[in-house]
Amino acid sequence: MISIVIPIYNEEEIIPTLIDEIEQSMAGLETEWEALFVDDGSVDGSLAALLHAQSRNPNIVVIELSRNWGHQTAISAGLEHARGDAVVVMDGDLQDPPAVIPALVSAWKSGFQVVIAERGKRGEGLFRRICFRCFYRLLGWVSDFPIPLNAGMFGLLDRQAVDAITLLSETNRYLPGLRAWIGFPTKIVMYDRSSRAAGEPKQHFGRLFRYAFDAIFSFSYKPLRFSLFMGVATAIFSMIAAVVLTTFRIMGVGIFGGPVVVGYTSTLVSILFLGGVQLIGIGILGEYLGRVFDEVKRRPLYFIRRVHGGVERRTGLR
Ligand code: UDP
Ligand code: MG
């Protein structure tokens, strides 16, 4: 059995086409399947559209979350409820074409437990593309283990991989990173990413930045190490400066052309520089501390209002 997990947030225009395309590509596979649509607190007609589809196709399950929890959380909810031997994860805006599903499934059948659909080109605006590119570069550089670049969550996870990800109970979830972290034989399948079929991107820049921060700070200690190095470098520099400047003072040698208003510039510059370095260091510490705070609260990841379709009801991970 193959499950398909699709997070949905205000996608009413797209849902009918999406469901048609999924039904078409699954019909060719001749396996049992279920499509779990996770309604992430949509405020338009998405839920009604999903329930309508569900009433005529028993393969469709609709999980209604209690509010908008965010893309990664909605996917986590879907993963937790999927019953399939393999689970396909895809976005609900047709940027992840259902026509790729058979290729994912055949890679899985040839023995790969994690199949990642990697986008060959991005059908998105230039600015967004540049931002994504910078982000993936930075992530590749800081992360302590390789996370495939240019890949979102579109792909397939085998039952063992789904169970592994479900077991990871952290609150700040960057799923592509977790998927790389759990291991298992992985295959990358290429496809072209189109732009969304209709509507606006639902994840605005603020949210994408949050994911970017989660990705960087949950998968690496390098920023902490960087702030330590900055501290050490500053300390060494100031020790050298102390020795040199004291010697000059004792010998009565002026620097920068003589003793005019002595000391003003160097004092101001060093105060500002040290202040900046300290604030950067504290900010980086804060990023980690905030995440620690989120984790120690051990709150459930999400709450479910109702499940429409035949799966048992659960609430949150843990
Ligand atoms: N989405 C969601 N909750 C949100 C934001 C988005 O479930 O809070 C869904 C959205 O309906 C879509 C998918 O996540 O199916 C990807 O969203 P979007 O296209 O806005 O993100 P991007 O393509 O920019 O990653
Ligand atoms: Mg999209």
Q: Give the second-level CATH assignment, the architecture of the largest domain.
A: Alpha-Beta Complex
Beta-strand residue fraction: 15-25%
**SSE series:** EHEHEHEHEHEHHEHHHE
Strand order of the largest sheet: 7-5-6-4-1-2-3-8
Bound molecules: uridine-5'-diphosphate, magnesium ion
Number of helices: 10
Low-pLDDT windows of residues: none
CATH top level of the largest domain is Alpha Beta
* First and last CA, distance: 25 Å
Please describe what this structure looks like.
- There is one protein chain.
- With 318 residues, this protein is α/β, with parallel strands linked by helices.
- It has two domains: 2-220 and 299-308, Spore Coat Polysaccharide Biosynthesis Protein SpsA, Chain A; 222-297.
- The chain has ten helices and eight strands.
- It has helices at residues 15-27, 46-56, 71-81, 101-109, 126-142, 159-167, 175-181, 205-218, 222-251, 264-297, and strands spanning 2-8, 33-39, 60-65, 86-89, 114-122, 155-158, 186-193, 304-308.
- It has an eight-stranded mixed β-sheet with strand order 7-5-6-4-1-2-3-8, sandwiched between helices.
- Helix 2 (46-56) links the parallel strand 2 (33-39) and strand 3 (60-65).
- Helix 9 runs antiparallel to helix 10 (264-297).
- The longest helix is centred in the C-terminal third of the chain and has 34 residues, at 264-297.
- The radius of gyration is 25 Å and the shape is elongated.
- The mean pLDDT is 84.
- It binds uridine-5'-diphosphate (UDP) and magnesium ion.
